[in-house]
Design brief:
The protein is mainly α. The protein contains 5 helices and no strands.
Length: 102
Amino acid sequence: MSTISSQSSATSILEWLTVKLSERLKVSIEEIDPEETFSGHGLSSAQALILMAQLEERFSLRLSPTLFWNYPTPLSFCHRIAEEVPAPLQTKSEQGGSRWTR
């Protein structure tokens, strides 16, 4: 995937993840710092696994559950995930697939 596509995908994933983190942690989107660690935001391992499942469903991916710990900030995590997303980035809902909600 090209660098431009990866950056675009990372930005799309980061936007989605920021919204999901704010919902899960019950904080405003503005309080989510992409360079702060997930644990610094107060994300538990159980919450991380739920987000991982939602991410897999949303972007049609199969990911290692250790990615949250190997890439401990939203920014580093999204850049890593963008490497896995086929270009152009399409979510399951854009493809007419189901959404996983919890």
